[in-house]
Design brief:
It is a single chain. With 90 residues, the chain is α+β, with helices and mostly antiparallel strands. It is built from three helices and two strands.
């Protein structure tokens, strides 16, 4: 989300936003839950089905492109009626 803010509101001036994350699926397994990892689009249906049908605490670690943004989002100090939507939904 920090990188998204830097993209949208700070003219792509990046600071402290290197995108290196742990394997959240393995972290879930290590903590007694069940982790699922989704890395390819053609695995989507199968992995999501397994994840939704699993009992107990689960984590779905789904990879996406660094440049992908999360929507809708509400900028700082704004109300819900001022949320930002992707260009295709404006």
């Amino acid at each position: 989300m920090v990188r998204q803010w830097q993209d949208l509101f700070y003219d792509q001036r990046y600071s402290a936003t290197k995108m290196y994350n742990p394997c959240y699926a393995k972290l879930a397994d290590a903590m007694g839950g069940t982790g699922f990892k989704l890395t390819k689009e053609d695995e989507l249906e199968d992995v999501v089905a397994q994840w939704l049908n699993c009992d107990g605490p689960t984590v779905l670690d789904a990879f996406c492109e660094k440049e992908e943004h999360v929507y809708p989002m509400v900028p700082a100090g704004k109300g819900l009626h001022e949320m930002v939507l992707p260009i295709s939904q404006r």
